[in-house]
């Protein structure tokens, strides 16, 4: 954050009250830790993450997830981590909830607490590429966080380190009519901390890469036949396709805006937009730098994207 360029008027202090139930909390924590130890004895697992209830319902309705009969779940920090198998592979599954805060919190917790080989995150996303359409599946190779902004008045000077710039006045209708007081936006890189880097030193990161090994596995799925119809009366006009290796964007923005969709495609070359892929930034507490999450998105998310 270019702090010197801002006019800091407020100091925001967030205080958290510590509840007076410390002893009950610590009893629960010990119970949870014992359960986690128990679960990890049966690991390693593949981590599975969805975002919203609709995605979870579809996943459960597919019948592919068979819950562990003896130890079906643990509730941690308000989320339910479920254990079971999918086609004979041991999995731990969680629904994280919408937005980047939820995605990162749930993924970091999964990565830190459970014996995980890798994470598959699947759900719906918005389409920003005209060659893709509703029902297509994308498995991106790189993901950019496009919601980390510095936002200036029309006269403000953007930081030269910004990776892209959005001039809001460029979108005036009719074109060039007067000053647009919304000014302009600079896209900043992520401050990325990782187990592979030096402790307490952030790297600047725009593109989070998906593990090459997992992408190679995913590329075997290309060409697979996807369903075209929900039922006898509801069909897509074309058979959907699965594409591996495009770029994706993520931010806390639900996008239903054709102009911004085109901006993202032109500036970042991204083919999808979602609100939870920030969890790809979570790296394992492990020496294996290849362990990272991968995301499957089915397009589009509700009416996201035009
Ligand atoms: C848009 O999607 C198509 C696949 O449908 C892909 O071939 C093309 O490379 C994508 N464009 C960009 C800029 O990624
Ligand atoms: C931008 O600069 C001009 C010329 O100095 C000034 O008249 C105008 O009020 C400024 N606009 C904003 C939004 O600060
Ligand atoms: C700018 O917009 C105003 C208000 O809509 C309109 O009256 C004016 O004719 C426009 N000027 C130009 C140059 O388009
Ligand atoms: C991600 O992959 C690209 C291209 O394969 C590479 O140039 C870049 O250095 C990688 N980034 C990181 C952070 O590993
Ligand atoms: C097909 O599915 C849609 C959406 O779920 C539903 O509204 C419609 O009634 C279904 N039609 C038939 C014939 O089952």
UniProtKB/TrEMBL annotation:
**Which InterPro entries does the annotation name?**
Nucleoside_phosphorylase_d, Nucleoside_phosphorylase_sf
GO molecular function annotations of the record: catalytic activity
**Signal listed as a keyword:** yes
Q: Which organism is it from?
A: Gossypium raimondii
Q: Where is the signal peptide?
A: 1-24
Q: What is this protein called?
A: Nucleoside phosphorylase domain-containing protein
Q: What PANTHER family does the annotation carry?
A: PHOSPHORYLASE SUPERFAMILY PROTEIN, PURINE NUCLEOSIDE PHOSPHORYLASE
Highest taxon in the source lineage: Eukaryota
- Report domain Nucleoside phosphorylase positions: 47-278
Q: Which keywords accompany this UniProt record?
A: Signal
Gene Ontology BP annotations? nucleoside metabolic process
């Amino acid at each position: 954050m270019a702090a010197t360029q801002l006019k800091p008027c407020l100091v925001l202090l967030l205080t958290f009250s510590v509840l007076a139930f410390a002893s009950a909390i610590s009893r629960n924590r010990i119970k949870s830790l014992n359960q986690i130890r128990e679960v990890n004895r049966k690991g390693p697992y593949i981590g599975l993450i969805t975002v919203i209830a609709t995605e979870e319902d579809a996943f459960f309705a597919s019948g592919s997830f068979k819950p562990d009969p003896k130890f079906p779940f643990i509730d941690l920090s308000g989320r339910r981590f479920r254990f079971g198998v999918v086609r004979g592979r041991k999995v731990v599954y969680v629904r994280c909830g919408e937005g980047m805060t939820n995605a990162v919190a749930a993924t970091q917790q999964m990565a830190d607490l459970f014996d995980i080989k890798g994470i598959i995150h699947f759900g719906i996303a918005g389409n920003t590429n005209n060659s893709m359409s509703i029902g297509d599946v994308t498995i991106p190779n790189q993901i950019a966080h496009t919601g980390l902004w510095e936002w200036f008045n029309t006269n403000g000077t953007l930081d030269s380190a910004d990776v892209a710039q959005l001039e809001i006045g460029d979108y005036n209708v009719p074109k060039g009519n007067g000053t647009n007081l919304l000014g302009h936006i600079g896209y900043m890189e992520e401050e990325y901390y990782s187990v592979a880097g030096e402790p307490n030193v952030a790297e600047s990161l725009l593109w989070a890469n998906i593990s090459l090994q997992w992408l190679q596995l995913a590329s075997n799925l290309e060409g697979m036949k996807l369903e075209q119809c929900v039922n006898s009366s509801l069909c897509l006009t074309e058979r959907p396709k699965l594409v591996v290796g495009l770029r994706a964007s993520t931010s806390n923005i639900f996008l239903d805006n054709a102009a911004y969709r085109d901006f993202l495609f032109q500036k970042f070359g991204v083919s999808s937009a979602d609100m939870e892929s920030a969890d790809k930034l979570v790296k394992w507490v492990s020496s294996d730098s290849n362990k990272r999450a991968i995301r499957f998105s089915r397009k589009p998310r509700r009416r996201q994207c035009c």
